[in-house]
Amino acid sequence: MSKFPLVVIVILATLMIGKNSLFVLDEGRQAIITEFGKPVGTPVTQAGLHFKTPFVQDVRYVDKRMLSWDGYPNQIPTKDKKFIRVDTTARFKVVDALKFIQTVRNTSGAKARIDTVLDSATRNVISSHNLVEAVRDSNAIIEKINSNEKSTDVNDINEEITGDIEEVLVGREKLSQLIVEKADAELREFGIELIDVQLRRISYEKTVEQKVYERMISERKRIAAKIRSIGEGEKAKIEGRLEKDLRLITSEAYKQSQKIKGQAEAKASAIYAKVFSKDPTFYEFMRSMDAYKTAIKKDTKLILSSDSEFLKFMR
Amino acid sequence: MSFNQGQPTNDFEKMKQDLDKALKMIGPFLIILFLVIGTYTSFYTVEPDEEAVVIRLGKFTGTNTPGLHFKIPLGVDEVIKVKTKRVLQEEFGFRTASTSRRVTSYRDGKDMDVESLMLTGDLNVADVEWAVQYRIADPFKYIFQVAEPIQTVRDVSESIMRRVVGDRSVSETLTTGKVEIETTAQELMQLVLNKYDIGIQIISVKLQDVNPPQVVKASFNEVNEAKQEQEKAINEAEGAYNKVIPEARGKADKQISQAEGFSIELVNRAQGNVAKFEEILKEYQRAPQITKKRIYLETMESLYKSFDDITIIDTKIKGVLPVYNGQLTGGGK
């Protein structure tokens, strides 16, 4: 009877001490042990069950996962004075939990610091480069134009690119890296490691956008006109070819048929000459006889002289 | 029962006894209940499209495949089930609004322009809508390596798509380059996500509507119309060519054939005439005088007999000709 409450007290005390001297560290988190608010030892980063001095020490947890930072879209002029809106995001990790807790306390505090650091780094990098450096990553587009120029195919007009394509010296990815380099050292002071910065969106300022659209429209109109005129040109070429081929064919046929006829006549007269020359006077006589028969029409008024050979015996 | 008999001193004792009895009866029942709950909470099933991540006292111990599994109850083992087989989709520049009707409806408002409008390599603007399909390849990494996995996928995808389109001209983006853009974007996205090591596998990047911005759309259409016109002009010219040239070829062939026919005829006639002459010549040479005379007379005979109007004039009569003067000059017959 009298032992019962004592047992209960002992059990409760053990439980309390146990609970206070053990703590579970979840995956994706790290912990700092503080003694009356003062950090002791190195941060605990391995997940699992851990010990601490009960009642004296406290545990503070910090995220160990990769965290995202989303920047507010900034209006930044580029080096070539083009106004663009740059929207960046970044990923970071708490690598020094102690520094992190001391300098920024928690994730939202960290994000506020990253805001200032990354904003200025982004502004710096973007405004010291031309617009193309932030848009393109390589000179692939220029290489493509060059290879297209070599193959001068009429139908390759799809690849039409207008204006000068500026050469990229740095490139988009490198710009991100430059921003990371600039910002990383500062963020290390807060126990933060910057994993990367992504130029999520780059767009023209509203006023600039309008001008770009106007340029695009005029560019398309120009391309359309060119396509049409190429079409007309092709048409004219075909019409010309038609005219030429037609004349070629008809004249060729005339030439050939004349030649055939000439050869035939030559052959025929050779045949005649060869045989008729055997007795030219007889030929003349025979041919005349034939000619009289065919040449003198039936209804001709014929006046014969009685001297005629035919009428010899009528005299 | 004893309560009813009204004996206060005994009452308390009795109650205690009753309680003990009750406890003895309830005790085993409680133990059984405890065991049942314990057993029930120490088993769990993993569905076919899932994987289970097991956390023991905060520490990751492994993943379990579909089926029935045991865990230590009372909060020692914690199980997180993740749909690893399911294909997840993120949409950019549009949202699938409803799939319940027969035709899936999409929302694609002005508010999403900010996602889909991007600069091309020739500093034009294109409106690119796309979707990314991905799968959770490593559930542990997906849960514990990254705070906002979906937002991370979105951020990376937007950045990569702009990088890929940024290296292409607006025409290429709108027409020929689509497949290449998809594959390149997928590769690059996977590279970045691998660097993050967050257990996500990109299955595909699919371009949806790729358009010029609304205001310039008309002029892009004009280019297409111009292409049609170009083709039409060329086709018309080809048509005219094909109509005229084959006919001309045929006529040319005809002309040549006619010439050949003429030629054959001419030669044959010559040969015929010559053969006839030679035959007569043979006869003639045998008796030239007689033959010549005969031929002459026969010819004249056949010639004169067919005439209707023959006048014979004696050479001794003079001055006949003037009679015919008028008729000869006027008639011409």
Question: Nutshell version of this structure?
Answer:
The complex is a heterodimer of chains A (315) and B (333). By secondary structure, chain A is of the alpha+beta class.
Overview of this protein structure:
- The complex is a heterodimer of chains A (315) and B (333).
- With 315 residues, chain A is α+β, with helices and mostly antiparallel strands.
- Chain A has three domains: 3-63, no CATH class; 67-141 and 155-204, Band 7 domain (Tetrahydropterin Synthase, Chain A); 280-314, no CATH class.
- In chain A, 53% of the residues lie in helices and 21% in strands.
- Chain A is built from eight helices and ten strands.
- In chain A, helix 3 packs across helix 6.
- The mean pLDDT of chain A is 86.
- Chain B is rod-shaped and about 205 Å long.
- Mean pLDDT of chain B is 84; it is low at 1-6 and 325-333.
- In chain B, strands 6, 9, 10 and 11 form a four-stranded antiparallel beta sheet that branches.
- Chain B has three domains: 2-82, no CATH class; 88-212, Tetrahydropterin Synthase, Chain A, CATH 3.30.479.30; 217-333, no CATH class.
- Chain B has ten helices and twelve strands.
- At the A-B interface, strand 6, helix 4, helix 5, strand 9 and helix 7 of A face strand 9, helix 4, helix 5, helix 6 and helix 7 of B.
- Strand 10 of chain A pairs parallel with strand 12 (310-313) of chain B.
